[in-house]
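User: Before I run my own analysis I want an independent prediction to cross-check against. Here's the chain; please return only the structure tokens and, at the end, one sentence I can use as a sanity check.
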Amino acid sequence: MLYYAAVFLIIALVAALLGFTGIAAGAAEIAKILFFIFVVLFLVSLVMGLMRRK
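Assistant: Structure tokens:
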């Protein structure tokens, strides 16, 4: 999932450089959402892993 966030971030940067502001904003928003989902899933798996050890 972090891979897809990075891909959409790169798409947003390329679109911004070329002047496609609508596409850049959309891709940046998707990258941001995917990144936060990745962080939440990472934290949940970290907590679950710590609880499993006990």
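Sanity check: The mean pLDDT is 86.
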